């Protein structure tokens, strides 16, 4: 407020002391334009705007153009200025196009562009560049191709910036063929910026080999290199896992004098980590004299992703000793690794570190803590973090919903989604997937169907196979096998994949539907997408087939075509009840099985009911023993 008063006084003071000979619209507009350059908040710009209205400058094109240009970060405010000006000029139209192209609503640029064309203005290169950026952000292929046609007719393809905007648009939209054709039609003297744009297009299209080839051709032709080209080629080498090529680029980096460029250093460390040479990345990190928080975060993140949590924690301590303050991103990567590996001790240490450093619980750090605590079994701590967060985003809400779902609190998960909507947040596909998964585990059919309907009708989100999989799993859990089968058969072919059928097969296991289980298994065979666990599930449904299917499974293992790490079975993958209900003489004897059997009995003692009795026709008084046996098959 104090700054706002000083700003108003400054404007009024300038105008009061104007020389009568200079006190004209032009001189006042120049003073206002100079003053607007120092405004960095909408509230400050609004003061200048108010002064303009008071002094009759709201219709002066020059003053309004400068006011509009200062307001592009707040598109709503900029739009109100633009719409209230009676006769906007080309500069104002281009300013609004730029504002929308960098905003959260890039599609609004298309309406401004159509309005501009309707006014019969002679479009310039900036009109095309900004609109093409909006097309790229919206993946608006038809609009982009139409603008390409206008560019050709108007002759603006002569401007290299327009060419690069088209290349960028086609690259982002995955139309690499159009981008390549446009690049080849350009004059031979393509500049470095154009080549960099084409390299970025190749990377967008997942063609790192072509990006690397273009870079080598440019170096061979003496075109030179820039920071952007080095970053692109390092990204390509990372994708190709080409460590030798990365070392060559490292040498070129030193030769051309980019050794002090932190962006390139960060990209080199990333490349070394992705090509399995994290030690080389650490040496480069240690050799770098001036290390900012971004570089520290990069090295810590690489350790975290490589599962080297102890090294990451040690680097965090070194970071503090060198008086570099960690930020949310520093802790988020380590917390994510703790959540993935189940390192509860280190996760709690990092949580204590956050408390001791009095770090702000922003959206990034808070979400990472919620995810870590929820996956580690400490739901109460996850809820506490969520409630204490000073700022939240969609990911924060989704992480908390997922936490409730994982811990079986399906009602809380659904309620939190509605609260999320009430507070003005828009759920995305991942949010709805978390809610549907929670509903599936909680048997909440009505709530699941309502969430699915809201997802499609209210938010216009296109369900993916994972969303349908949750509904199918829910129907299967409740024994509605025919309904689940009908839903799968009504799905579009592209979404009727093995995941959906496998969920139905698992339901057939639970409810002992032999006929449907065999039918589903035949479908999986016809799809050529069979997995050894399919045979194991079918053997549960159809007693007496255990030995045959187990041999088939072991044959897959011996061929190395499936999971070789399956020596360490998780309880859910082993399906202990399956061993108990089998009528054949085949049985595994191992320490792991004995331990898992003891654990299974402990689960039963805690009150959890076994579903194994559904799988085989035995008298009721034998079902519990059959489900929890660890001895020879009975």
From TrEMBL:
InterPro entries: PPR_At4g14850-like_plant (IPR046960), PPR_rpt (IPR002885), TPR-like_helical_dom_sf (IPR011990)
Coiled-coil region list: none
PPR repeat ranges per the UniProt record: 191-225, 292-326, 362-392, 393-427, 428-463
Identification of the protein by name: Pentatricopeptide repeat-containing protein
UniProt-listed PROSITE patterns: PPR (PS51375)
PANTHER family named in the record: PENTATRICOPEPTIDE REPEAT-CONTAINING PROTEIN (PTHR47926), REPEAT-LIKE SUPERFAMILY PROTEIN, PUTATIVE-RELATED (PTHR47926:SF490)
Gene3D superfamilies named among the record's database cross-references: Tetratricopeptide repeat domain
Protein family: Belongs to the PPR family. PCMP-E subfamily.
Biological process, per Gene Ontology: RNA modification
Keyword Repeat in annotation: yes
One of the record's GO molecular function terms: RNA binding
Keywords: Repeat
Record bears the keyword Transmembrane helix: no
Domain of life according to the entry: Eukaryota
């Amino acid at each position: 407020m104090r700054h706002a008063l000083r700003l108003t006084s400054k404007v009024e003071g300038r105008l009061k002391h104007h020389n009568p000979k200079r006190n004209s619209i032009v001189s006042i507009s120049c003073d206002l334009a100079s003053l607007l350059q120092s405004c960095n908040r909408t509230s400050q710009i609004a003061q200048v705007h108010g002064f303009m209205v008071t002094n009759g400058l709201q219709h002066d094109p020059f003053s309004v153009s400068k006011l509009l240009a200062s307001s592009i970060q707040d598109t709503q405010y900029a739009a109100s200025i633009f719409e209230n000006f009676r006769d906007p000029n080309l500069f104002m139209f281009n300013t609004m196009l730029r504002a929308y192209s960098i905003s959260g609503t890039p599609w609004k640029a298309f309406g401004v562009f159509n309005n501009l064309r309707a006014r019969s203005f002679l479009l310039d290169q900036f009109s095309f560049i900004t609109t093409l950026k909006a097309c790229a952000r919206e993946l608006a292929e038809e609009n982009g191709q139409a603008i390409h046609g206008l560019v050709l007719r108007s002759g603006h393809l002569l401007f290299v910036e327009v060419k690069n905007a088209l290349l960028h648009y086609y690259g982002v939209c995955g139309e690499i063929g159009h981008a390549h054709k446009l690049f080849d039609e350009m004059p031979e003297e393509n500049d470095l910026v154009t080549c960099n744009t084409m390299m970025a297009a190749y990377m967008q299209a997942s063609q790192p080999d072509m990006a690397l080839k273009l870079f080598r051709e440019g170096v061979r032709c003496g075109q030179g290199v820039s920071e952007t080209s080095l970053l692109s080629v390092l990204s390509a080498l990372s994708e190709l896992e080409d460590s030798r090529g990365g070392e060559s680029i490292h040498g070129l980096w030193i030769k051309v004098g980019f050794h002090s460029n932190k962006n390139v250093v960060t990209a080199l460390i990333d490349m070394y980590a992705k090509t399995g040479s994290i030690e080389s990345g650490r040496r480069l990190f240690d050799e770098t004299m001036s290390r900012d928080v971004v570089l520290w975060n990069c090295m810590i993140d690489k350790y975290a992703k490589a599962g080297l949590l102890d090294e990451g924690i040690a680097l965090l301590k070194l970071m503090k000793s060198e008086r570099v303050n960690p930020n949310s991103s520093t802790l988020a990567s380590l917390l994510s690794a703790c959540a993935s590996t189940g390192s509860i001790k280190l996760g709690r240490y990092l949580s204590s570190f956050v408390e001791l450093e009095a770090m702000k619980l922003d959206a990034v750090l808070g979400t990472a803590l919620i995810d870590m605590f929820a996956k580690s079994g400490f739901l109460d701590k996850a809820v506490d973090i969520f409630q204490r967060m000073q700022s939240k985003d969609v990911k924060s809400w989704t992480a908390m919903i997922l936490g409730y779902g994982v811990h079986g609190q399906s009602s809380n998960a659904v309620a939190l989604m509605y609260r999320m909507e009430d507070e003005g947040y828009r759920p995305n596909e991942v949010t709805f997937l978390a809610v549907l998964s929670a509903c599936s585990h909680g048997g909440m059919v009505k709530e699941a169907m309502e969430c699915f309907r809201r997802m499609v009708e209210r938010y216009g989100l296109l369900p993916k196979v994972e969303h349908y999989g949750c509904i199918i799993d829910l129907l299967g859990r409740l024994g509605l096998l025919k309904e689940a089968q009908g839903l799968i058969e009504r799905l579009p072919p592209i979404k009727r994949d093995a995941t959906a059928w496998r969920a139905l097969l698992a339901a057939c296991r639970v409810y002992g539907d032999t006929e449907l289980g065999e039918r589903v298994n035949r479908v999986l065979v016809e799809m050529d997408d069979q997995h050894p666990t399919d045979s194991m599930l079918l053997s549960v449904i159809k007693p007496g087939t255990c030995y045959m299917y187990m041999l088939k499974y072991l044959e897959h293992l011996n061929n190395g075509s499936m999971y070789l790490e399956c020596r360490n079975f998780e309880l859910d993958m082993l399906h202990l009840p399956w061993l108990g209900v089998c009528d054949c003489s085949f049985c595994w004897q191992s320490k792991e099985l004995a331990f898992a059997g003891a654990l299974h009995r402990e689960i039963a003692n805690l009150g959890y009911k076994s579903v194994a009795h559904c799988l085989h026709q035995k008298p009721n008084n034998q079902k519990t023993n059959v489900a929890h046996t660890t001895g020879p098959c009975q």
